[in-house]
Each structure stands twice: as structure tokens, then as C-alpha cells.
Amino acid sequence: MRNSTPWWIRVPLLFFTIFALMEYFIDSGDQPAFIAYPMTQYFLLLVLLLLIAIELILKSIENVMFQTLSEEAKARYLASKSKRWEWTWGRELYQKLLGSRPIEEEGEIILDHDYDGIKELDNRLPPWWIYLFYITIAFGAVYLVRFHILNDYDQAEEYQQEMVAARMAIEEYKKTAKDLVDVNTVELLTESSDLKAGEAIFSGNCAVCHMIDGGGGIGPNLTDDYWVLGGGIRNIFQTISEGGRAGKGMVAWKTNLKPLEMAQVASYIMTLHGTTPANPKAPEGEIWMDPNAPVDEVEVQVDSTGVEVLMETDTPNPLEGE
Ligand code: HEC
């Protein structure tokens, strides 16, 4: 029976051809099909099992036919098989790399000392080991020229590059994992889809007490500069999540709203700042100023009535436009 390629080449070759064809024909976006559709993994497993089954059947047919041969034909068949290129080539390569002398020739390399019956052979160093040694020398030479003579790049640059890549990966991740925000990580969302969602949450849950335009009713006015519990995205998020002072009517929304939803509605509230509602409620609380806002100029005026501190900031409010 003739089969030119051995099974350990044939099976992987067929398997990966089918794999590649599958990836080519199944449109799975930017993910490979076998990840996007876990079903395909079963398909591949089936293909693999089928290929193995076919090989096993071929083997047993070969075996049955072999038994029907005469003794002389059997011998010829075995001889031709052991002469196949991959066998001879593999065996020779293995012998070469090992570099050991056959047992019959050991007499030539035996050393003439004898430790309580333990004798030593003067084998050559195994060629695989020597080649490895040469490779390390070549590597060292290339390394020396590249990094110490041509100064390709150094550890600091490599570190910077990896940090940039990591930061980009984090940004990417944040886009898909907005729901992981908490009061420490919450940031003002500016995408219109987020603000739209925030508006919907506000009109559905909050407008009864804060009015649809944020002008205030049972709850305080959300459009002015005065805040009972502190302004800015973090304080607002905190208030929505944990609720207001006991007995005032502002409940903790964290049981009803997801973190992302709280961030969206908090960002939406920030957009209400400075608008003019129909029936604004009188200010409650105190003027809130962002302690982290960069201050460019501080002017202190002292007169008989008291001290006035004027601070000028250069940072435009992202919600008001420049
Ligand atoms: C049952 C009425 C009620 C509802 C509904 C309500 N609030 Fe309030 N809200 C209040 C009251 C009352 C306060 C004042 C709490 C205090 O003084 O401690 C308040 C305070 C706040 C504050 C802080 C205002 C400040 O001056 O510090 C924010 C922000 C806020 N609410 C957002 C929301 C959001 C967002 C929703 C919807 C998810 C909502 N509220 C739903 C009654 C309500």
C-alpha cells in the first residue's frame, strides 16, 4: 500500500486547512470565528476525531493487507517502509546531533582509569550542545552591536512604550467596562448617547421631585451654583448612589440604578447647571467650587465689610461651551 506522506503530517495539514477555510467563510467581525462562535469549536473537534478515525481505519486496512502477504513480500514491504525519507532523515539527524559513538566502537574511546568498576568514556561534546553554544555567541554579538554600539533603544524607552500601550489598553477597556465606575473613578461623561440615557433616567425617576428642568420641587434646584451635598461629578454621583440626609426624601439609588446609569444621570445633571428653569427653587446649601480646578489668579479685596476672594480660572466649563 502506498501513501507518500506520513500521518503526522497529513492529519495536522488537513485539520488546519479545514480550520483556515472555516475562518475564511464564516464572517465573525474582528474576532476569529472559533472565539466568536463557540459552536465552531465542536465542529473542529468533530473534524479532528473524524480525521483520526480515518487514519485508524487506514492503519487497520494496511494491517489486514499486510497479513495476507507472503513472508518474503512482508520483508520487502517493511524494508521499503523503513527506507522512507522521513525515517532515514530523522534517524540520521538524531544520531548526528547526539554525536555519540555506537556501542561497538566504545572500546576506542574508553579512558584507562577504573573507579571501583566505573569506567569513563571520552565522548565528544554533543553537537546539539555545541551548536547551542555557537548560537549564544552569535546572539551576544548581535546584541552588543545593536544595543551598545548602535544604541537601538534602552530600557527606559521600552518602559515608556509599554506604558503608552497600557494606557491605551486601559482607555479601550474603560469604553467597554463603563459599568465598573464607582465614586472614586467616576468621570464626567460627555458622549451624547450617555447624556441622552441620563436624561431618560432623570425624567423617569427624578423629575417628580427635582422637576423636569431641574428647577427643584421637593428636592433642591439642580441648576444653580448652590449645593446641599456638594457639586461636581463625584459629589453628585455620591448623593445619587447613597442618598441625601436622612428623612429628606432623597433615597439611595444604588439599589435601582446601575453604576453606569448613575454616572449618566449625574453627567446629565451637570449639563443642567446654568440653565434657567421655569420655576427655579430658591438656592439651598452653599456655593460649591471645585477644589481641583486650576486657579490662575487670586485677588483678595479687604474693606470694612469683610474679605472677598476672587479667583479666576482659565479652564472652560466643558458643558457650557467656550
Ligand atoms: C422623592 C423625591 C426625590 C426623588 C425622586 C429624587 N430626589 Fe434627589 N433630592 C431630593 C431631596 C429632598 C434632596 C435633598 C436632600 C438633602 O437635603 O439631604 C435631593 C437631593 C439631590 C441631589 C443633591 C442636591 C444638592 O443640592 O446637593 C442630587 C444631585 C439629586 N437629588 C439627584 C437626584 C437624582 C439623579 C434622582 C433620580 C435618580 C433624584 N434625585 C430623585 C428628593 C428627591
UniProtKB/TrEMBL annotation:
InterPro entries, alphabetized: CcoP_N (IPR032858), CcoP_N_sf (IPR038414), Cyt_c-like_dom (IPR009056), Cyt_c-like_dom_sf (IPR036909), Cytochrome_c_Oxidase_Subunit (IPR050597)
SUPFAM superfamilies: Cytochrome c
Cytochrome c domain segment(s): 193-273
Membrane spanning residue stretches: 7-26, 38-58, 128-145
Keywords: Heme, Iron, Membrane, Metal-binding, Transmembrane, Transmembrane helix
Protein name per Swiss-Prot or TrEMBL: C-type cytochrome
